[in-house]
Amino acid sequence: MPFSTIIDDLAERGWSLQSAFLAHDVTQKLADECRRRYAEGTLAPAGVGRGEEQAVREGIRGDHIHWLEEGQAEVCDAYLALMDELRQTLNRELFLGLEEFECHFALYPPGAFYQTHLDRFRDDDSRCVTAVVYLNPDWQPADGGELRMHLADGSSLDIPPLAGNLLMFLSGDFPHEVLVTQTDRLSLTGWFRRRPVDVLAL
Ligand code: OGA
Ligand code: MN
Fold first, then answer.
1. In the beta sheet, which residues pair with residue 170?
2. CATH number for the domain whose boundaries are 4-45+60-194
3. pTM for the whole thing?
4. pLDDT tens-place string over residues 14-51
5. Which of 187, 191, 192, 193 to mutate to test the pocket of ligand 1 (most atoms within 8 A of CB)?
6. 201 C-alpha vs ligand 1 centroid, how far in Å?
């Protein structure tokens, strides 16, 4: 079954890393789209927090983002279709009840980072599984920008943002951070969501 190692990894340890998840030409086209949008100014400094409390804080995160919408580019639509297949597989195999996938391009210019955080808001647990694909074909260890995942046993894991790598993890279980990058660091970061539980209505 396609995606079977992802399913097994998530079930056993809550995270999965797939190298070469996307073909080289696909990551190339996604990277081109991200750079083109950055150059034309459609990527905006990312905010921290939710709703009216959202604010840009470069001391917490320094990336620029652009949310994907259907119909903006063929390669983006192909990626969204692939992730929808993955969403259906996750539901079938792990009974997660995921209803949608949202994702954004992110570009971290040199010097940018993202401090340790969880991908869940205090008042909204609808983000269930995080999925990041990296778009940096020439990434070298000296470039930095690793995703550092903090595991429950106190150890940590550094994931290089190398083109085609897909990292997935349960959004509420792993604090993580993006280490300072020395060069432009491109990714497509997304979340599989279920409907938020309305605690007030319980
Ligand atoms: C995020 C995030 C990780 C990465 O955007 O919430 O943690 O490797 N991104 O880009
Ligand atoms: Mn995150």
1. 129
2. 2.60.120.620
3. 0.93
4. 999 999 999 999 999 999 999 999 999 989 898 887 77
5. 187
6. 31
Per-residue pLDDT at 57 exceeds 60: yes
Query: What sign does the dihedral 19-24-26-29 (CA atoms) show?
Result: positive
Domain assignments of the chain as residue spans, ordered by start: 4-45+60-194
3-class DSSP assignment, residue 21: coil
Asked whether residue 189 carries a pLDDT value surpassing 80, the answer given is yes
CA dist 94 and 77 (Å) reads: 25
Residue 11 φ then ψ, to 5°: -65, -40
Residue 13 has pLDDT above 80, yes or no: yes
Q: Which residues contact 202 (CB under 8 A, 6 or more apart)?
A: none
For residues 45 and 42, give the distance between their C-alpha atoms in angstroms, rounded to a whole number.
10
CB 123, CB 83: distance < 8 Å: no
Choose which residue among 134, 149, 176, 180 to substitute to test ligand 1 binding: the one with the highest number of ligand atoms within 8 A of its C-beta.
176
Kind plus residue range of the DSSP H or E element containing 4? helix 4-13
Task: Give the span between the Cα atoms of 4 and 16, in whole angstroms.
Answer: 11
Q: How confident is the model at residue 199 (pLDDT cuts 50, 70, 90)?
A: low
Cβ atoms of 73 and 55 within 8 Å: the answer is no
Q: How far is the CA of 47 from the centre of ligand 2 (A)?
A: 12
For residue 101, what are the β-bridge partners? 192
